[in-house]
Amino acid sequence: MAARNAASRRGSKVPRARASGVHFARTPNPQPLLRAVDNGPTVCVDPTPYISGGRDPGWGPHLDGFLSRNREALAAIGAEPHVVAGRNGIRLELKPGHSAGAVPLRSPVSGQVAGGLVVSPRFGWPGVGRVLAATGWGSGPQFLTQPLVPGSGREVPPWVLAGPVLQRLTNLLSDLKPGYQERIEVRTHPRGQIQWPAYVANQMATGRWHHLPCKFSELGTDSRLRETIRWTLERIRLDLAATGGSDPMALILATLAMHLLDQVADVPSRRPYRGELERNFGAGSLTSEVLREGLRAIGWIVDERGLGGGRSSEGLAWTLPLETLWERYVEKFARAEASLLGGRVRVGRLRETTVPLPWDHRSHRAIGHLIPDIIVEKRDGIEIIDAKYKAHFADLDVAGWKAFTEDAKESLRADVHQVLAYAAVCGDVTNVTATLVYPVSAELYNELNFRSQHIVSASIPVGTRVKQLRLRALPFSGLN
After folding, report:
1. Which terminus of the chain has a smaller tally of CB atoms within 10 A, N or C?
2. What is the pLDDT of residues 121-136, one digit of tens each?
3. Tens digit of each residue's pLDDT (9 = 90 or more) over 433-471
4. Do 240 and 257 form a contact (C-beta atoms < 8 A)?
5. Can you give 9-58 as a three-state secondary structure string?
6. Is 176 left (phi over 0), alpha (psi -120 to 50) or beta?
7. How far apart are CA 385 and CA 334, in angstroms?
């Protein structure tokens, strides 16, 4: 008491919590999550959470460090940083590109994750789900080797990331090959080598003389791995049921999980211990890519890393290149149409459409070849198809050509020139059609289709022949 009074007399301040003996835990500041839409408006990055501890309030000396720390993550998701100078100082904006996904953002001061960026698809998650279902989950999200993204776990439906995990488990089950496995089992009839020391210590000591511990080899798949796969499938199915609700994609994936569970119904479910996957399955001869990817997916479930859907606030870092997904969907659509008309389809992603350009001087060669996305060879001619994940068709219909920005007009001209260049190398074919395919919403597609305006054409005379140029709209949600 005398000491406290003395301190009070000297004017020193005694913290109330310490004086009362009560400890007040400091509440951590929530880490901000920036939300954007692919190809949408820029989002402004507030420097405060990323430079806490620094002496300067704005980006100032921290800007280069922030961009350097996060360059890989921003590139993975296709976001482009823009530095804008204004009256209030430097402003950092992020322009989303053609990819959806989520990445963490690190502080340039501490190097730790201090926030995140999630980019949603502009045509909505249901549309992406239906397109993924049509093209297969092989063209789905790609997981990044980045830390967890704070707050992103509640921003995406559970199937967005559960789908690729199920795809990896499907591949893993298909890749499991039977082999001779060593087993130790207590049997009533001897098999292989009887483990006498264990028999004396356990069975004889307890009067179970007819129970024989035996060690033998048996042809079969790795039962421990299959037990782990079963546990993982059960966990994913429960998560989809708990967080997916009536979402059609969640129901489809839950059904897929049930079908996969049938393949491991003969083994019990077993959750692997932490670190067991890498120690027991990832070493030695088990080094196939399918196995590594499958074990990594199991590890995410074991570690309860966020797969989205709201169960966890944090989520895995991932990216989904929507431009590539759109090309795969248009390819799928072209193959379906060609099968009805007896056409033959060649695609650029398989290097089936490469056209070399024989430049007369190698030092001035700009590009070495042309690669159209899709070529459909029909009985009456050839159709060159180029898939463009741009909003040109929707903008043109809604706003008209006069409302186009100069950048949008230039982009559309470039698309037309590109597909016509592809059509020019078709040789002496009588009927050549060059088609640009753009995504639109399901509502706009239905309206255009009702007005018979989902395809617009122009005839272009080339020498003695006429080539057809078409702009075509397809819904980014699949056709019913």
Report:
1. N
2. 988 888 888 888 788 7
3. 999 999 988 888 888 889 888 898 999 887 777 789 999
4. yes
5. HHCCCCCHHHHHCCCCCCCCCCCCEEEEECCCCCEEECCHHHCCCCCCCC
6. beta
7. 9
